[in-house]
């Protein structure tokens, strides 16, 4: 089931009413209701993969108990390895089997050895990368004695499968979400209202900005050799807004939906296109994934404890793995490695944490220096998005070759509608003004009620006018 679907407009109020009016006096029944609803939500995509989700959940629940109760470190480690191996085995098979088989066959062909490889038509279970990382973080935290295991299978299953975050994050931690599931929740009007505001802003970013930009971006990336440099530049910019509006829009809807039920999920985006260098960008983009790799891969590899060379090695590993997490393609690996190379100079010269505050904090406009830093960082990110979006490496390099062509200064191909540019401009303006807030519609109490309602109704009507049924989110494929 998609957030931007007719089905969801029926599903959400139904669960909301049952949750707060029928089961409000029983935490147990509230959790059972949410778990049942979450499985229904997931099963609307393909009910067969519910069994994989349930198996993964049961595996990590049982492994967590065995790790906690094992008397010897050897046995604790054995159960950890079993859980990690099976989880990554499923993820590897469904997501990477054909990629590695095809890459191995190509390597043999380059060496002059013929091969007869068997490719499989494998359907990627939606959300597998996200719920696998939920479970892995849980068993890692138990193994490292940061938490004790849950003894309630319903509560743990809801942690893994809570429908707002199930298919595209944010990637939650047991230390953050499980305590909220285990304790009674009460309806807080201000929390629910702000959740609805955040959902509305997320729908605007998805329906109006992302889906609107997709048409021109798809045109530019479909056959870059037949487009001018200016068209390719506009196409890349439109894709940058498409993927930001799509993914951060999903996160806003997820966080807002969770707040309707009394939950606070981890923030996943913090206005990344206002970053002043690549290090700041990665502190603001897909925050839950970046922090997951830092805690469960970078630090276990040694972090920066043993000198600069080890820190450089570990940083490149993190970015390469992050690229592969996004998809089974050399494009994603190069995209991750590209960002790692951009990050290294900041790391080597100790500049990777020089921008930890908000750009132009306390000011209406950025300084000239900040504006140049933001523009330059966005340009670097833009080049990376070309590898991310292109269907293969050949297309990506053709795109770059055509982009830096003398036709860059010519008029781009028609199809840039003034409304779409206005929508992108509105997104940038509103988020710049709200950059110290949790989301674009986190309005100040001092604002008049009339002004707020004019804004809400206007955004709602614009979303309604541009709504298209079943426009999938980009990150569903990861």
Q: How would you sum up this structure, described in words?
A:
- The protein is mainly alpha-helical and 478 residues long.
- The protein has helices at residues 6-22, 27-46, 50-69, 73-110, 128-143, 153-161, 174-182, 189-222, 229-260, 278-284, 287-298, 308-326, 330-348, 368-389, 393-403, 418-433, 449-466.
- The longest helix has 38 residues, at 73-110.
- The protein is globular, with a radius of gyration of 23 Å.
C-alpha Rg, in Å?
A: 23 Å
Summarize the helix and strand pattern as letters: HHHHHHHHHHHHHHHHH
The biggest beta sheet reads: none
- Helix proportion range: 55-70%
Features:
about 475 residues; mainly alpha; 17 helices; globular
Topology:
Layout: H1 6-22, H2 27-46, H3 50-69, H4 73-110, H5 128-143, H6 153-161, H7 174-182, H8 189-222, H9 229-260, H10 278-284, H11 287-298, H12 308-326, H13 330-348, H14 368-389, H15 393-403, H16 418-433, H17 449-466
Provide a quick synopsis of the model:
With 478 residues, the protein is mostly helical. It has helices at 6-22, 27-46, 50-69, 73-110, 128-143, 153-161, 174-182, 189-222, 229-260, 278-284, 287-298, 308-326, 330-348, 368-389, 393-403, 418-433, 449-466.
């Amino acid at each position: 089931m998609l957030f931007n679907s007719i089905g969801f407009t029926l599903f959400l109020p139904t669960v909301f009413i049952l949750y707060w009016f029928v089961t409000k006096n029983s935490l147990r029944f509230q959790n059972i209701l949410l778990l049942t609803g979450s499985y229904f939500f997931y099963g609307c995509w393909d009910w067969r993969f519910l069994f994989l989700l349930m198996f993964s959940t049961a595996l990590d629940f049982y492994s967590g108990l065995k790790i906690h109760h094992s008397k010897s470190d050897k046995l604790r480690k054995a159960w950890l390895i079993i859980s990690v191996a099976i989880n990554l085995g499923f993820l590897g098979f469904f997501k990477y089997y054909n990629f590695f088989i095809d890459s191995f066959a190509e390597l043999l062909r380059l060496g002059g050895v013929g091969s007869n490889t068997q490719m499989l038509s494998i359907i990627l279970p939606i959300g597998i990368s996200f719920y696998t990382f939920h479970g892995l973080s849980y068993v890692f935290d138990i193994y490292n004695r940061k938490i004790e295991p849950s003894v309630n299978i319903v509560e743990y299953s809801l942690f893994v499968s809570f429908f707002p975050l199930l298919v595209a994050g944010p990637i939650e931690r047991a230390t953050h979400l499980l305590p909220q599931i285990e304790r009674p929740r009460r309806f807080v009007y201000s929390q629910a209202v702000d959740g609805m505001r955040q959902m509305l802003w997320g729908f605007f970013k998805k329906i109006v900005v992302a889906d609107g930009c997709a048409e021109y971006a798809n045109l530019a990336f479909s056959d870059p050799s037949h487009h001018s440099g200016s068209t390719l530049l506009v196409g890349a910019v439109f894709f940058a807004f498409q993927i930001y509006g799509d993914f951060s829009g999903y996160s806003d809807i997820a966080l807002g939906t969770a707040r309707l039920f009394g939950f606070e999920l981890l923030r996943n985006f913090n206005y990344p296109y206002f970053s002043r260098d690549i290090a700041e960008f990665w502190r603001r983009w897909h925050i839950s994934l970046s922090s997951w790799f830092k805690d469960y891969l970078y630090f276990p590899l040694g972090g920066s404890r043993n000198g600069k060379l080890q820190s450089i090695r570990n940083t490149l590993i993190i970015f390469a793995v992050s690229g592969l997490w996004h998809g089974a393609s050399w494009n994603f690996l190069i995209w991750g490695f590209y960002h790692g190379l951009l990050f290294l100079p900041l790391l080597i010269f100790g500049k990777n944490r020089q921008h930890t505050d908000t750009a132009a904090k306390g000011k209406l406009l950025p300084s000239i220096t900040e504006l140049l830093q933001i523009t330059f960082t966005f340009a670097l990110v833009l080049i990376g998005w070309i590898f991310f979006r292109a269907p293969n490496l050949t297309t990506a390099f053709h795109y770059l070759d055509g982009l830096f062509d003398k036709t860059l200064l010519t008029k781009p191909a028609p199809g840039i509608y003034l409304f779409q540019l206005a929508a992108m401009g509105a997104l940038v303006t509103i988020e710049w003004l709200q950059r110290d807030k949790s989301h674009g519609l986190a309005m100040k109490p001092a604002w008049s009620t009339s002004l707020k309602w004019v804004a809400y109704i206007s955004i709602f009507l614009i979303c309604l006018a541009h709504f298209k049924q079943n426009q999938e989110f980009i990150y569903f494929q990861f």
